[in-house]
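Posted in: Structural Biology > Protein-Ligand Complexes

Title: Requesting predicted complex, pyridoxal-5'-phosphate in pocket

I'd be grateful if someone could produce the 3D structure tokens for the following input. Sequence and ligand are given below.
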Amino acid sequence: MPLPSPYPNLLDGPSVASTIPSSELHRVFRDAGERERISGVPVTKLHVGEPYFTPPPEVAQALAEAVTAGRTDYTAVEGLLELRERLVEKLADQNGVDTDVSRLFVTPGSCQGLAALMQAVAEPDAEILLPELHWPIHLQQALLAGLRPVFYPLGRDYRTDPKSVLAASTANTRVLLINSPANPTGAVLDTATLSTLIDMARARGWQVISDEAYEHFVFDDEHVSTASLEWDVPVSERIVHSSYSFSKSLAMTGYRLGYVSTANDRTAHAFRIVQEANLIAMSTPVQYAGLEALRLGHVVRENRAMVLSNRDAVLPAVRDAGLLPELPAGGWYAVLDVAPTGLTAEEFATGLLETRNVAVVPGTGFALMPRLDARGRVITVEPAPWSRHLIRIAMCVAPSVLRSGVRELLEFARERPGTAR
Ligand SMILES: Cc1ncc(COP(=O)(O)O)c(C=O)c1O
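-- Reply #1 --
Done. Output follows.
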């Protein structure tokens, strides 16, 4: 006989986490690996944001030296002071962001920094505004933090229109997520749009989380850090919390190194508590690697040039085939619309993998719209109908891989009955 629950109202159903959809990215990752294993034929991987350029050797050396020299004790929960001081300087010099070591935290990848930020700002029943086409991990993080996601529509070019953000907001809105350059769309927001969004947020008492993982991959303009627009605002009135990463700029994906600058001391305090509970501390040797990486600005510029050259060499053919409205203005990805083939994204991705050994991600995985119960558990989840012909490809892969993968993709598309060109 089941024991009576001491918490009958809490334990009468599944946990919130168990109801959250797994990321489509991870599913495709597994499918591609499985296909390689069974067929023995290598899959052309356009699905994953893993760069072909590698972390600089100086960074690996700094990591090894830290380990062999025994610099392996716990650091403070905020991270190594020396690294945080350098990051404060970097943010001031390169991003125009005014911060202080007391508000700056080193994190194990920016993914964890973003999750911790959401936990730090979450309030009961609070809503977070996410772009309707978003990185699926933002959605998972919001749900885990207890924030209720509300989606704002994007324009034809996938850029954020402040009017649509306002129209989607409600009396319960507390947080606005901005991701520029964006994953998956590559959309980049300009100063005017960011200023309007911050003014709107401040007037309504919202917090802003600015995910700038792709800050160094803006192709046609300069990157604008959202928090730079608060330079003149007193610290206690600032609302923009920013997250940055070493993964993209220096290809340090597996090092797991990122950092967060909280807007004000209140959020810094809450963030510290979240990290005390989640981390104890960052990996110490990895932070020494980060110190070395900060000296390598030229590598960051070279990495940007490689992705830009990939974009310009390969994506115009996709645009000319009618599958890509515009070249992405930033980031590592492009969102293709395969509607002219008459196939859904799922059919396209499966067919491409099975017949041409090329892996891409269906865009539906970036447009999931969950419905929640009163406690924040997901009851149903459906992709937005307009996403059913979208797929995402990564353009940070080796030029030869991108060229051959896209050639196969275009041939596959041309063979479909509905394809015009
Ligand atoms: C938009 C966005 N933000 C954050 C991250 C997290 O990167 P990391 O945890 O490696 O710093 C990613 C990784 O793909 C991303 O696409």
